[in-house]
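Recap from last week: sequence in, structure out.
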Amino acid sequence: MGVLGLAIYLRMDPQSNHFIRAAYADEINIYHIICYLLIATGVAVTFIGFLGCCGAFQESRCMLGSVSTVLV
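Predicted structure tokens:
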């Protein structure tokens, strides 16, 4: 969740966008793409962790097997 929060902050912070525009005008698209990739990674890891917690709480072998298959 820390990666997700940091990526959303970096994407929405107007000062960091201004700094990137002033320093590297051509690389602003790369900055946004990296932010979106970090957001997607944060969402995926949070979702997998949530499924793992639910599977452990409910003692569901199917859900825990799914989570361990995704993580390998």
